[in-house]
Amino acid sequence: MLGEGKQIADVCRTLQITEATDYRWRNQFGGLNADGAKWLKDLERELHPERLLAEAELEKAALQVRHRRDTLRSPVRLVGQR
After folding, report:
1. How far from 22 is each of 2, 40, 58, CA to CA, in Å?
2. Which InterPro entries match (predicted)?
3. Is residue 40 part of a domain?
4. pTM of the prediction?
5. How many domains does the chain have?
6. Is residue 69 in some structural domain?
7. What residues make up the domain containing 36?
């Protein structure tokens, strides 16, 4: 549409999006054509479970470190002591 000489505001109105959305999409996808943008979205969708797993593993490791640290800091009590 823009290649046909239409103004951005007119194209946004036709597509029923705001100019802010158009600006954000242009920044996000740069010079990608429709096929490139679809490929990028498919790749993000494919890698999403792997990213979630990696985040969960990092959180688990952080909790293990915190647990070890807290265990080392806790006072040792002898049997019968209060």
Report:
1. 12, 17, 35
2. Homeodomain-like_sf (IPR009057), Transposase_8 (IPR002514)
3. yes
4. 0.40
5. 1
6. yes
7. 8-73
